[in-house]
Amino acid sequence: MTLNIQQISPVLGAIATGADLASGITDETFEGLHQAWLEHDGVLVVRGQALSHEQHIEFSRRFGDLDHHVVTQFVPEKYPELYRVSNKPGEGGKYLGNPQAGNHWHTDNSYLDPPAKASLLYAAEVPPVGGDTLFASMYRAYETLSPALRKVLDRLEAEHHFENALSNFSTFKATDRQIDATPPVRHPMVTVHPDTGRKSLYVNPGFTTRIVGMNADESEAILRFLFSHATQPQFIYQHRWQAHDLVIWDNRCTMHYAVQNFYGVGTRDLYRTTVKGDAKAA
Ligand code: OGA
Ligand code: MN
Question: How far does the centroid of ligand 1 lie from the alpha carbon of residue 151, in Å?
Fold first, then answer.
């Protein structure tokens, strides 16, 4: 099988065919996939993969060490590396996964230090229509700001807090243990990608609470501007899922948004692994 990579939108993303992840891939094929992922600004769709949980986890490990999600009620028993995103009802009518995962623009785990490097979301079952995921290029967001504003942002840090997304976008409440495990952290507002050397804007509406050193009005106005700037339609790829898609995204240079329009339409059942980021150089 020969690996084939096709661009899927003018701004970011590619689709790979000719790789069968379930039967194991060579280092050379992995290198081809990894390179395509970097070159297409951090979104790669690998279609038609029938993956067991073990195969999904094993392939994900090629990107680095995997995180165990803090929201443990959606972590499947026996698979601490997985996080289930699902509107499938289980016993007692409780959802088997988080049906509201990512119903706002965000970057996975920006509330951790170091924040996540990559996420690999696998679709076991998808509705006939609806439940698309939007991806925005944060390279593009940064590159389209004026040199004057880039210069200011280059020197600033912002605070990120897990609890922010829950209080603003979710009907689930965090437990005391989850809140205690995720104190606010600070990251530069502009980060340099370790593999591509390109700069990205690194703030997101889900978890970014404020710009360090600014008063509340300044911080809110600038963040509001940056969020609307970054999410303009021309900076976005909209992924329409097919069952057995594996979508790999780079949390260091993208944001994503799960469109919540599938209730009553069909079952949406996905599993995610999250690859830990590299620790900052001391
Ligand atoms: C996630 C997430 C998006 C989706 O799992 O990190 O944001 O479309 N999900 O389900
Ligand atoms: Mn997410």
Answer: 32
**Dist. CA 25 → ligand 2 center (Å):** 26
Confirm whether 281 is domain-assigned.
Answer: no
The whole-angstrom separation of Cα 189 and Cα 30 is 31
Domain limits for position 76:
4-275
Residue 170 has a pLDDT of 75
Residues 244 and 242: their CA atoms lie apart, in Å, by: 6
Residue 132 CA: nearest ligand 1 atom is: 8
Residue 282 in any domain: the answer is no
Atom of ligand 1 at shortest range from CA of 256 = 7
Q: Which atom of ligand 1 is nearest to the CA of 259?
A: 8
Catalytic residues: 106, 108, 256, 272
Helix (H) or strand (E) holding 239: strand 236-239
pTM of the model: 0.96
Mean pLDDT over the full length of the chain: 95
Q: What CATH number did the domain enclosing 13 receive?
A: 3.60.130.10
pLDDT at position 183 is 94
Look at residue 1 and tell me whether its pLDDT is greater than 80.
no
Q: What is the DSSP letter of 206?
A: T
Question: Would you say the CB of residue 13 lies under 6 angstroms from ligand 1?
Answer: no
Task: Return the pLDDT at 227.
Answer: 98
pLDDT digits (tens, 9 = 90+) for 86-144: 999 988 888 999 988 999 999 999 999 999 999 999 999 999 999 999 999 999 999 99
Q: Is the minimum distance from the CB of 119 to ligand 1 under 6 angstroms? A: yes
Cα–Cα distance, 162 to 208 (Å, whole number): 9
DSSP bridge partners of 256: 106, 135
Closest CA to ligand 1's atom 4: 258
